[in-house]
Design a protein that fits this description.
The structure is a homodimer of 310-residue chains.
Chain A: E1 11-16, H1 22-31, E2 36-41, H2 53-70, E3 75-78, H3 81-94, E4 99-100, H4 103-113, E5 118-123, H5 125-130, H6 132-138, E6 143-148, H7 152-157, H8 164-172, H9 181-207, E7 214-217, H10 226-232, E8 238-241, H11 242-256, H12 265-269, E9 276-281, H13 285-296, E10 303-305
Parallel strand pairs in A: 1-2, 1-3, 2-9, 3-4, 5-6, 5-7, 7-8, 9-10
Helix pairs in contact in A: 1-11, 2-3, 4-6, 4-11, 8-10
Chain lengths: 310, 310
């Protein structure tokens, strides 16, 4: 390489226990289209939520080292709420590159959005049990009220979600009924599940004398339901997509770290001809390939199987 | 012990990867109330469905040995569709007592019920992918059409099911709307999910020129939804509860094996003062205790944590 050769774009490693974190990758690509991406889903060992903190830390550290040492990641985004809640320190100890989780950016976006200081957080059972969002809210002077919504991940994985086009239409015309037919009936079920969960959560907040004005979607599967949430929340309530928030935080970190990457920002921000994405999984490549494109909103391509050991 | 002492009742070991198999235990207790019961949920290592056949066989064999060697089980019921589908041989090799799975009894009950020979089977993704029900149907001259219904287990675990009293009312008055309020709205969601799945399955069967008249509930969580299924199926369609079918098969086997147990049948069939149940789990004792009583329809009592190793 000569002195005049343009610096190669940095590689951003994105890690999740499954493939929900592809929503974070999608949000990153939108903002940093010229970076290279390596995504790892530790699908052989999911769900992380039912495992001990020590085990999760070991799995997440192994995964982070794979992305940094074997795939050359210059920057890591932990696109997994459970790993962000329980293993961010262990990951930072395991690798020498900057590491960003999804929980702090979500709480930070809630702080920017909320006027009342009362914030609703919905997430998986494991994330809620960790109380990581409540702690991140409290550190910012917010009151966070968390609720586990275990039906939403299976509804997303079943595909009972609005199509992207329908989602745009919902967002533009709040109050319009979803399309009919089998897909319409499926989406109506998901909308009703969301209505029930939000009614329970709002009743709980009201009973505690709180006035929430912000809802954090604290799970990387939930961005596929964002349009339904935006229709379901009371008027004036902001919906924070933690995948979007994490991607915005990644851009801010990039802006503070240009020297580390040989001033790559111009090339990172300019749209390339082809976005370079390599996807890896430790198991379930078939399900990853089948569902991944819905999360990423583009083909995931061939997913490579990797063995990280026990 | 003198020659005249009454023989002690046999111990029936019941095994599941989780606690859904408590529906099988409930059906066994109803028919064999004087037996002793030891139930093991291998909750630390669930879900079995995403693991390889070899790993499932190893876990199931360890679990079976625990029930036989440490808890003195004289008879084993594998109340887990995945383990029944993939590891019945390995379990039979691991222990010297009779072993009964849930799949063959379900298929046998379908054969007794079906006139057309066309049978619908709904189950988890893992059970459907094993095609164990289709094979068991085929061996009996039936055509089995399988469908994975991944939303039903989380709906049951969330408790979006009719209460037992409501279930009786539904069964008695088909067509009557479920109770309203939050619980009513939740049960209505579950009923709609069942309607959608059955409509898809019936459309698939019709497209293949089949005339199904029997529906097998091929998952140990589904008995809690039986009343909803009975309301949702077309008129004249039989609903086979594989938990009930397995318990009936266990009684038949007991009737052929009285000598093995020192003629215990009279005491097994006579209602005792107190049903003796010991429950064990390898993890998640809290969730087991919280949800188990809904599956068992009586308190599960204190669940003991056991360590079966890796």
């Amino acid at each position: 390489m000569t002195d005049s050769a343009p610096p190669s774009p940095p590689t951003i490693g994105v890690f999740d226990s499954g493939f929900g974190g592809l929503t974070v990758l999608r949000a990153l690509i939108e903002r940093l289209p010229a970076a290279r991406y390596a995504f790892l889903g530790d699908t052989a060992r999911l769900p992380y939520g039912s495992k001990s903190r020590r085990t999760i830390a070991r799995y997440a550290a192994q995964s982070a080292r794979f992305l940094v040492n074997e795939q050359g990641a210059d920057f890591l985004v932990i696109a997994c709420n459970t790993a962000s809640a329980l293993a961010l320190d262990a990951i930072q100890d395991a690798v020498s590159v900057p590491v960003l989780g999804v929980i702090e950016p979500g709480a930070e976006a809630a702080r920017a959005a909320s006027r009342s200081g009362d914030v609703l957080v919905i997430a998986t059972d494991a994330t809620v049990q960790s109380h990581a969002y409540a702690a991140a809210c409290q550190a910012r002077g917010l009151r966070g009220i968390e609720k586990a919504c275990p039906l939403l991940v299976p509804l997303v994985e079943e595909g009972w979600t609005p199509s992207p086009a329908a989602a745009l239409s919902f967002a533009a015309q709040a109050g319009v009924a979803p399309p009919q037919g089998s897909q319409g009936a499926q989406v109506a079920v998901t909308a009703e599940v969301i209505r029930i969960y939000l009614a329970e959560l709002n009743a709980e907040a009201a009973a505690a004398g709180l006035h929430p004005d912000t809802l954090v979607l604290g799970c990387t599967h939930y961005p596929l339901l964002r349009a339904l949430f935006e229709r379901a929340v009371p008027p004036g309530m902001s919906v924070i997509d933690s995948a979007e928030a994490a991607a915005q935080a990644a851009v801010r970190i990039f802006n503070t770290l240009p020297a580390s990457f040989g001033s790559p920002l111009p090339s990172v921000l300019a749209p390339p001809q082809v976005v370079e994405i390599r996807c890896f999984a430790t198991d379930s490549v078939e399900k990853f390939e089948r569902l991944g494109s819905r999360f990423l909103e583009r083909p995931v391509g061939k997913v490579e199987l990797v063995d990280l050991g026990g």
